[in-house]
Write a structure and sequence with these properties.
By secondary structure, the protein is of the alpha/beta class. The chain contains 12 helices and 18 strands. The strands form 3 sheets. The protein has an 8-stranded parallel beta sheet with strand order 7-8-9-10-11-12-13-14, with helices on both faces. It has a 5-stranded mixed beta sheet with strand order 3-2-1-5-4, with no helix packed on it. The protein has a 5-stranded antiparallel beta sheet with strand order 6-15-16-17-18, with no helix packed on it. Bound molecules: zinc ion. Zinc ion binds next to loops.
Length: about 400
């Protein structure tokens, strides 16, 4: 058995903390661990021998739980590839069509792309990640197969959920439901969906198809809802009806949900209360260019709101980063979080709220949790976020994947 001990760290509240990891889980955590019984081998001595204890002297570094990416698209990225020159139109449908054309012309390798970006996420301290993967009548399961291979390659360290996502819409493209069905049978964990009004143009039929497929597979759903204003609220209403009718409480995530940011406070609070009752969680990218769901109202209502990049350097956007501390900074900027204790909320969006939203189990800094740990040189969460402090050590599922700032 390999044991890992981290000594001389500081918790987010500033107090001393030490952690003992056994079998990939946190076996002990507290202000100070008792002296280890086993023979020790310091980090840097090479791989620890059987029954050895690997010790990290954190030298006062700040300990955070593993970061959580609640919404990205690993399969689409051009991360690590030549720069993609974006000359796309500005409408949603322009971007969908542009991507389909690029995908057909470029011979994009979703397996290689997702592996490169998945490794970059790990090196930056993300240990849990939900990725949407394009499923449509042209790509079929090609992107899914690539991302499944990446999940297998990184399975000892990165806990990855795969969403089967119909990027091109469903109702207008015959055969898409069947491809989604096959994706869920093949290994996707979650059913994705897209704007039932704006893209599918028949919200009742669209959502009935979504919930029927989720019901068939007993899987959760995660829908991209870009629809603005009353159109988006109408889609929420139809979803709530179906969640309650089908007993899907706690199994629905709505990503983006821009429309919630357009409502006056009373209407937003009323809708959020209904979402809380239905166990609906939200994901935001905190985009500077769009209205966003009201963060504090969500927290008051008990609606989880997690942070995610969405696409990273793909045909949709040149932006994004596998550094979730950067996403936390975007959240801080978008929601005008300035006090240090307010930035704790931004960190919460890319840690605990992400785990809660995506149903990642055994998450956090407590005995029995999966040992996902990040150590940085910073006084507190606010400084870690604003400086995007380099990751000194990252432990993923008990494995040291970054040591003294170097990915190993
Ligand atoms: Zn997305």
């Amino acid at each position: 058995m390999t044991t890992l001990e981290i000594r001389n760290a500081r918790a987010l509240d500033g107090k001393p903390v030490e952690v003992r990891v056994e079998h990939g889980k946190i076996a002990a955590i507290g202000p100070s661990l008792p002296a280890s019984q086993a023979s020790g081998a310091q980090v840097g001595d090479g791989a620890p021998a059987h029954d050895a204890v690997r010790r990290i002297d954190a030298r006062g570094a700040l300990l955070m739980p593993g970061l959580v990416e609640a919404h990205t698209h690993l399969d689409k990225t051009t991360w690590g590839m030549p720069w993609y020159v974006n000359e796309c139109g500005s409408r949603l449908i322009d971007r969908i069509d542009n991507e389909r054309a690029w995908r057909a012309a470029s011979g994009h390798d979703a397996g290689a792309a997702s592996l490169a970006l998945g490794r970059a996420f790990l090196a930056a301290g993300t240990t849990r990640l939900r990725t949407h993967v394009d499923i449509d009548t042209e790509a079929g399961l090609r992107h899914l197969e690539g991302v499944l291979a990446t999940r297998e390659t990184l399975r000892d360290t990165l806990d990855m959920q795969i969403v089967a996502f119909p990027q091109s819409g469903v109702l207008d493209r015959a055969g898409t439901v069947e491809w989604l069905d096959a994706s869920l049978a093949r290994g996707a964990d979650v059913l994705g969906w897209l704007d039932p009004c704006a893209i599918d143009r028949d919200p009742r039929a669209s959502l009935d198809a979504m919930f029927a497929l989720a019901d068939k597979h007993g899987c959760p759903v995660d829908i991209h809802l870009h629809e603005p204003g009353e159109m988006g609220v109408f889609s929420f209403e139809l979803m709530l009806e179906r969640i309650l009718a089908l007993g899907m409480q706690g199994k629905v995530v709505v990503s983006h949900a821009f429309c919630l940011g357009e409502l006056d406070a009373a209407r937003a609070d009323a809708l959020l209360a209904r979402l809380a009752d239905a166990g609906v969680a939200l994901v935001t990218t905190a985009p500077p260019s769009r209205i966003v769901p009201p963060l504090m109202a969500c927290r008051r209502a008990g609606v989880p709101l997690a942070g995610g990049n969405d696409g990273i350097r793909d045909t949709w956007t040149p932006y994004g980063s596998p550094d979730m501390l950067e996403r936390a900074m975007m959240i801080g900027l978008r929601y005008n979080l300035r006090r240090d204790d307010e930035l704790d909320i931004a960190l919460d969006c890319v840690t605990h709220q992400g785990a809660r939203t995506c149903w990642f189990e055994d998450y956090g800094l407590h005995v029995g949790a999966r040992a996902d740990l990040v150590l940085v040189d910073a006084l507190n969460a606010a400084q870690a976020i604003v400086t995007r402090a380099p990751r000194r050590w990252v432990v993923a599922n008990g494995h040291v994947v970054v040591s003294e700032g170097v990915a190993v």
